[in-house]
Amino acid sequence: MRATQLFGNTLRSAPEGELESHRLLLRAGYLQQLAAGIFSLLPLGTRSMEKIRRILREEMDGIGGQEISMPVVHPGELWQRSGRWQKVDQTLVRFQDRRGRDMALAMTHEEVVADLTATQVSSYRDLPRIVYQIQTKFRDEPRSRGGLVRTREFVMKDSYSLDRDPAGLQHAYREHFKAYFRIAARAGIPVAAVLSDVGMMGGGMAHEFMYLTEVGEDTVLFCSNCGYAANQEVAEARRPDPETGEVLPLQEVATPGSATVAEVAALLGVDPSRIAKTVAYWAERSRGGPGELVLALVPGDSEVNLAKLRAATGAVELRAATPEEITAGGGAPGYMSPVGLRGATVVADPVLGGRRNLVAGANREGWHLRNFNLDRDAPGATLAPLTSVQAGEPCPSCGHPLDLRRGIEFGNIFQLGTDYSQAMGATYTDEAGREQLVVMGSYGIGLGRMLACAAEEHHDQRGLTLPISIAPYAVALISVGTDPRVVRLADEIYAALTALGVEVLYDDRELSPGVKFADSDLRGMPLRVTVSPRSLEAGGVELKRRQGTAFVVSTDDAIAATRRELTLLEEELERWMRERTAAVDELAAATLGGRS
RNA sequence: CGGGGCGUGGUGCAGGGGUAGCACGCCACUUUUGGGAAGUGGAGGUCGCAGGUUCGAAUCCUGCCGCCCCGACCA
C-alpha cells in the first residue's frame, strides 16, 4: 500500500485522559470512535484484526474446531427458554420486530449453539465436536472503558465444545486452556490463567486468561509459592482455625448513637474483627421479579465484595437496601443482625463461623448484642466467602502470603455442563440406546481487547511496537526526498517485495523525512526500509527494526536482506512463544488436575 | 445508576455578556528534504441541543443529549 493512497491519517494529538496505548491506536490511525464503546476500524486496525483472526482460526482448527457463523439477532423466545431473558439485566439488548415479536442482540451464543446441536447432533457418533465463530457481539455495558478494553460492540471468537460426558468436557476444556496460551503468545501477549466466577454463564469451573498490567480493571490474587491464581471475584484466603472458647449467652448492651463498626468497637473496647458486621442488600432473583432482603455478614474489619455476594445468592439485581426496606424487614439501620429477623436471606462469611462470642446488632436502635455465635444465633445462614482478599493474606492451598495484581481479561473458558442442552433439548442417543444430554463448554476471546492488550504491552514513547504477527504491515518503506534515483529504487523495492508477498506500507509522500520516520514509528511496523540520498551514498538502503539500530545493505542485497530480517523477527517471536508455552502441559495438569 | 470532569473549525485546546481565537492538519505557490521544515496567500466554526434572562448570550440560568474518568458489571 502506498501511503499516498491510504485511507486515514496519523494525528499529532489525541484526547487527554485516555489510556496511553489507546491514544496511540487513535493517533496511528487504527480506529475511530463512533459512540461510547463503539468503534470503526480503519485499514490499519482492520489488517491487525485480520491477523488476529488468522491466529485464532489456526489455533481453533488445531484443536479440532470447525468454523460456523451464527446470527447477530436472536428470537427472544430462545433466551426465554434458557431463562436468561429473565436472568440477564439490561446488558442484553431487547427489541421487537414489526410483528411485535421479542428479539435480542446476541451478547453470546450458547442458546443458538444448543439449538443447533439439538437438530444436528443425534447420536454418540456425532460427538465430540467443537464449533466456533468469529463474530460481533453487542452488550449494552453500563460503562465502556479504556478504548478497546471494554466496548459495547465487539468481535469475539467464541467456541463451544459438545461432548458425551463430563470427561469429554474436561478434555475440550484442557485443549482450550492450552490453545489460549498459544494464541496469546503468538500475539506477543503474556497471560496467566486464573480461577474465575461463572457469572451469567452458569455451570461449573471457569478460568480467565489475564494480561497483567497496572491499567487492568480486574484484581487477581497469586501465590508465588504454589501457583494458586484467582480473580478477586472468587478468591479466598486460608481461614484461621476455628475458635474453641465457651459459647456464652447472648447479652444486650446499650450502644446509643453508635451505628458504625468503629464507634461500636471504641465504645465496647473490642477489636473491629470481633464484630459481626451485617450489611443489608436488596436482591432480585430474576429481572423485574420480586425483591427480597439479603443480610451479608462479614467481620467488622472487612468489606462485602458484591460479586461474591451475587454468586452466593444467585441474585440478578443486587443493591444496598434502603432504610425503608430494612425497617420493613424488622431491622434497624446501623444496628442490624440476623438475630430475630425472619424472612431475610442470611449469608455469612465462613470466617465468622469459626469465631466465638462476637458483637452484633440487636435490631433496635441504640442496642447491640454481645456473645453472638453464628451457628447458634443465625442457624439458617448460608456460609459463603463474601470479602475481598487483601494482599498478604495466606494462600488457601499453601498458606504463603498472596500477591495482588491488576489485569485485563483477555479470554475465558467455562464448563457449562448440561443447562443449555436441557433447555434446548440438545440430546443424543448413546450406544445403549438411551437418550443423554450433550455436555457443553463455552470459550471466548475478544479480538479488540486482544489488540488493546498487545498495544498496551508493545508501545514506547514514539508509538506502537507491535509484534510482526499482528502488525498491519511487516515493512515500512520510506523514500527520502525527490531525487529520481531514490524514487526509482524505492519503487522497485516496493514492487519486488509486494510481488514476493511481503506486506509493505510504502511512504511515497513528498514530505520531510522527519514526518515519515515519525509516522512509521507511530504506526509500529516492525521493520523500516529507507531509501535516501544518504543511504545510496553509503552503498544502498538502510534497514532498521522498530526498536533496533539502523544498518545499510547494498542495493543488490536489499530484497534478500529485508526478507532475512523479517524471518529473524518471526523466529524471535516464535522462540518467545515457545518459552511462554513450554510448560503449558504441566500447568494444565497442575491447574486442571489429572494428566494432559 | 452514584461520584467527578468535559462538549468551541478535521485533531488538540484557549476564551467566558458586545468583532470567535491559537497550534497542528487541509488547499495553492515558492524554497526545502535524515527525526513531526520555512515563507506567502487561502479555505474551514448553527461555540452539543432546546428553552429562558438581556438591547445584546459561546459566555448567565433551567432542562435535555453526548463523551471521558473513578465505582457497581464483563471478552
Please specify the SSE layout and strand pairing.
Elements: H1 20-27, E1 31-35, E2 38-41, H2 43-62, E3 65-67, E4 73-75, H3 76-82, H4 84-87, E5 94-96, E6 102-105, H5 110-120, E7 129-138, E8 153-163, H6 166-186, E9 192-195, E10 206-212, E11 218-222, E12 229-231, E13 251-254, H7 261-268, E14 276-284, E15 291-299, H8 306-313, E16 317-320, H9 323-328, E17 345-348, H10 350-353, E18 358-364, E19 367-372, H11 374-377, E20 382-383, E21 403-417, H12 419-424, E22 427-429, E23 435-437, E24 439-446, H13 447-457, E25 459-460, E26 463-464, E27 475-479, H14 484-499, E28 504-507, H15 513-523, E29 527-531, H16 533-537, E30 540-545, E31 551-554, H17 558-581, H18 584-592
Parallel strand pairs: 3-7, 15-17, 17-20, 27-28, 27-29
Antiparallel strand pairs: 1-2, 4-6, 5-6, 7-8, 8-24, 9-10, 10-21, 11-12, 11-21, 13-19, 14-15, 14-16, 18-19, 21-24, 22-23, 25-26, 29-30, 30-31
The chain binds one RNA strand of 75 nucleotides through strand 8, helix 8, strand 21, strand 24 and helix 13.
Describe the protein in words:
The radius of gyration is 29 Å and the shape is elongated. The relative contact order is 0.14. The longest helix is centred in the C-terminal third of the chain and has 24 residues, at 558-581. Helix 1 (20-27) crosses helix 13 (447-457), helix 2 packs antiparallel against helix 6 (166-186) and helix 6 packs antiparallel against helix 18 (584-592). The protein is built from 18 helices and 31 strands. With 596 residues, it is of the alpha+beta class. The mean pLDDT is 93. It binds one RNA strand of 75 nucleotides through strand 8, helix 8, strand 21, strand 24 and helix 13.
